[in-house]
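G., before I forget:
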Amino acid sequence: EAGVTQSPTHLIKTRGQQATLRCSPISGHTSVYWYQQALGLGLQFLLWYDEGEERNRGNFPPRFSGRQFPNYSSELNVNALELEDSALYLCASSLFQGAGETQYFGPGTRLLVL
Amino acid sequence: GQQLNQSPQSMFIQEGEDVSMNCTSSSIFNTWLWYKQDPGEGPVLLIALYKAGELTSNGRLTAQFGITRKDSFLNISASIPSDVGIYFCAGTRAGGTSYGKLTFGQGTILTVHP
């Protein structure tokens, strides 16, 4: 069974541009989560989608947004890119069963903002 | 925001030695997860713990969910060179702004000398 997949693997943008990152969850999983892993800052929760709805978001500005499609895949959009947005963006999925679900991660998209 | 305190930050050991790392929090967690991350890749789930006091093994790895629900440890027995990587603890809490998201520790960098 395929794991979580993400595309592209690498993305290079310049300040002010927009970036779109994509994620396909494990088959049967309805929840998708996005995390940012910036150098030296650890993994920080960005967004959680379940059944097409945004369920929770982390402490990030509104220019970080996303959506979940009917097939449960998801995209993360980052508008007005800033240098400090350079990071590894990780997507995870789970079969949501309430608090305590186990999240499985994809390989990530490495975003570099110049 | 809520932090998990993970220690040690790094470990340098000889092949064959046992390893122990732990995570603590000032708050109660419903789930404790342990992940391993290799450079440039996404975190891979090692062990998931769902109940206070639970002790779970996965090959040479053993992890426990603390009785107070505020801590967890991971042990690796008889380390081998492929154990090299960064180990993260993560937890989930119920309710409010914590709903659905994983909170991560800062990571333990493990180096194994042959």
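Chain A is about 0% helix and 55% strand. The CA atoms of residues 31 and 96 of chain A lie 6 Å apart.

More on Monday.
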